[in-house]
Amino acid sequence: MRKQSEAIFQRALKVIPGGVNSPARSFKGLGMTPMIAQSGFGAVIRDVDGNEYIDYCQAWGSLILGHAHPDIVRATCAQISQGSSFGIATQVEEEMASTIVRLVPSVEKIRFVSSGTEATMTALRLARGFTERPKIIKFTGHYHGHSDSLLVRAGSAVAAMNSIATSKGVSAATIADTLCIPFNDPDAFLQVIKEHKETLAAVILEPITANMGVVLPKPSFLKLLREETQKIGALLIFDEVVTGFRVGLTGAQGLYDVDPDITCFGKIIGGGFPAAALGGKAKILDCLAPLGQVYQAGTLSGNPVAMRAGFETLKHLQRPGFYEELAKKTDRLVSRLEEPVRRAGSMFSLPMDEPRFAEFFRYLFERGIYIPPSCQEAWFVSAAHTEEQLDYTANCVLEFCGNCTNAQTLQLS
Ligand SMILES: Cc1ncc(COP(=O)(O)O)c(C=O)c1O
Questions:
Q1: Which of 125, 247, 288, 395 has the maximal Cβ count within 10 Å?
Q2: What torsion do the CA atoms of 323, 324, 325, 329 make, to the nearest 10 degrees?
Q3: Is the model more confident about 31 or about 47?
């Protein structure tokens, strides 16, 4: 029964485009009314009709501790009761900055913003300001938020590398400096570097992708990006909005031992509140205003409630064994799936085609399991998931496979 959800969605459609404030939550292509959430505790979300779902979206990877973790609730409520926003520097911003600088070796200084989109957009402006060059390289299928110059997909071959905007409303001039090439393809990369070495400001990537399913980088490819950018004086920007503090305390850069110039964070560092950041080498970060001439600002940047939530979250992540425990939970689910799941720590994806995915999504939804409503997105296991929930989920996935007319129809690749 989803009567309330349907009624609310119908009313929302009249006043909000598509009834939602971000397209990924619209259930487009799934042929169903989107979820209207009421509350969340631990790994479970309850909708406005009182239906409960084990949640593997966890606010798109933001909630590594699960919903409404008591420590986050306590810390944020305490902050709210003392003022929720000042537009003035606060102590917790310094505490958060010092913590991230201590934990992530490549980060010497950090600036907080409110969304991953702002972090990557500012990182590009900073790279262009620092290098005084215009062009950037991004990779096909990598998502860096919705700022104009990053809403670009590639032509299918390097030779046909005319950048094409993924969205209407992005002018050709805006994306003229965005070069888009395939991921994990050293030849394509070397060719572009050769052509644009004088004008290239930066290479930006999701070091482990979350937005085209989980795709792991070839370690040698990341090393190549580092070496070649260094050689030509361009910056390497790791977009760790998803992987930062998800795959470990030092992110994907720690796993692959790469030292980027700038790292973008988001999601987990806000503990479920709007916070994101760009951090990196001091000589680069110091080009930001007020020290430097690259402008960046935000009324709610470094908001103390979001900083408190992030700071409390990071305290949990630093406890000995946190990531090992999370990996064990993920193993419990993933090892049962029998198929080659693409995985990095507690994030993973089950590649499949869209019509099959719609069926799969509905099958799980009807059984009280909520997964990210797109076949391109990663699932996230939180510290709050219980063994029972993970076992039940594995049973349901296997049941779905068993019920397929052809047992291979999950089409995992
Ligand atoms: C890798 C990556 N970068 C940037 C963003 C944009 O972050 P936000 O949605 O907070 O603007 C996202 C969002 O999912 C992301 O996955």
A1: 247
A2: 100
A3: 47
